[in-house]
Amino acid sequence: MSRPGISIVMCFRRLFLPRGAPARSLGGALAATAALMLPSFAEAQGPADPPVLDSVIVETINVFDPAQARTNVLFRIANALHFTTRPAVVRSELLLRQGEPFDQTLLDESLRNLRARALFRSVTADTVRDGERLHLVVRTYDGWTTQLVLNGGSVDGQFTWAVGGVERNLLGLGARFGVVYKHEVDRNSVTFETGLDRIGGTRAGVAVAYEDLTDGNLGLWTVGVPFRALSDRYGVVLSGEAGRQRELQFRNSLLDAEFQRRVLRQRLEVGLAPIAGSGGYLRVGVMGEVRREDYRRLADSALVIPDTVRGAAGAFVEWMRGRFKVVTHYNGFARERDLDLSTRVTLRGWVAPKGFGYERSGIGPSLSVVTGFDAGPVFGWLAAHANGLFTSAGLDSGQVNAGLTVAIQGIPRAPTVLHIEGGARRGQAPGQEYDLGYGVGPRGFKSHAFTGNRNLWGS
Prior knowledge:
There is one protein chain. 13% of the residues lie in helices and 55% in strands. It is mainly beta. A 16-stranded antiparallel sheet has the order 4-5-6-7-8-9-10-11-12-13-16-17-18-19-20-23, with no helix packed on it. A three-stranded mixed sheet has the order 1-3-2. The protein has a two-stranded antiparallel sheet with strand order 14-15. Strand 18 (378-391) and strand 19 form a beta hairpin. Helix 1 (4-16) packs parallel to helix 2. The radius of gyration is 26 Å and the shape is globular. Mean pLDDT is 84; it is low at 1-47.
């Protein structure tokens, strides 16, 4: 009698091991499978005996180089007003440590992590040899992180404006703090936001935002230890929102109904990465959510979505193979920026049993696919997403969206970016219809001129 377990192992060996390779174990077969999925992992190992770093030196430079500031009073004033990023902020993003082997792929990812903080106009790294000793020198050149918000615009006689400020590098600690007042067509608001990543040099972080609206208020929070590097093995994030606000529903450019939305939501997500490295990863995890939400029609106080406590549980799997491109002037400024052209596939699934507060049991699958391409001066990415909630009665709600972005950097300092996207929704909550020109797409008409459950636009 054959043994099924042995047969499965032999199948793994035949499928994933080269012809003539010695058959060792199921673990070896799985390792070979991982190498096929993410071949750059094997490349990331480098030479057999890579040099060991004797020290890691971090140099942080203010917005303007000291030599420039000595000859220009405006540069000196700008440097005096700006807190230079503290070296500890830079070190917290480095994946290389003193006494560890030098790995170019880890260094490249460290530089991407630093640029992703949006604190620096440029980041460089060099290795220096002193006899048999190898030193890594990382230099960061601060960008101006104090953003003053002062803008306004008028479309079809509707004037909107905003004023405030956002600091992304408070006291040089990499902390965020901002206050912005907005005068919009449907409401006015004051938004407060603050956050800190890499608390105490760890991966832990916290972000909080509060909106004081003329028709309500809304609070958002996120705290946890998220995935920050491709090689991270676990992530735990707790997020939520609470508040009440008015939701407007438009049909054919006219206000059709007004609702008051009240919500209290808390979500926990825990993920593990059985495969992780500078070339990509495979992550799996579980999710749980508790939500209390209702939509009340203001005209007759009728409840559209009942006020009840609901819960859901789910799981996810995400596969990613990394590809990145460093560009400048992509967004109109000289700041270096990493464009993520990676291929990423994410599959999620929610289970909402009737016993968790729903009228009937349901399942909610979702699939997201993103892939990029790089042909020198021409690059871009294609993204698609679909999700739905299915019950015994069929499709309860769902949406599908897809978009294509192509960038051309044929002319120095003047990129051309082309974008097109479209989508469709069904069974959405009140006020969640597509609203072109008012949060989706460029604004060229009066607010709420184009609303509905399908959209197609490009720029």
